[in-house]
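To: structure desk
From: M.T.
Subject: fold request, one chain
Message: Could you run this one when you get a chance? Sequence is below, nothing fancy, just the single chain.
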Amino acid sequence: MKKYTALSILTCLFLFFDRLAQADLNDGLVAYYPFNDNANDESGNGNHWIVNRASLTKDRFGNFDSAYNFQDNASDHNCAAL
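Reply: Done. Structure tokens follow.
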């Protein structure tokens, strides 16, 4: 009987702490830029940008349009908020 009681308590503790470990990724989210051919904020907060002198390219894993390629001199790259 003690074995089943201990097992029940451990199961309840596991379920309780499992719920605490889950986080809401949208809680406190300021902006979300998914690299979808523009610099618009997809979080709904309206933090849109204009990207100058950069173009979308392949990332290090070969995924197209998943990284920015900055041309020219690196010191004159900028992004402007709308």
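Reply (cont.): The CA atoms of residues 28 and 43 lie 11 Å apart. Let me know if you need anything else for the meeting.
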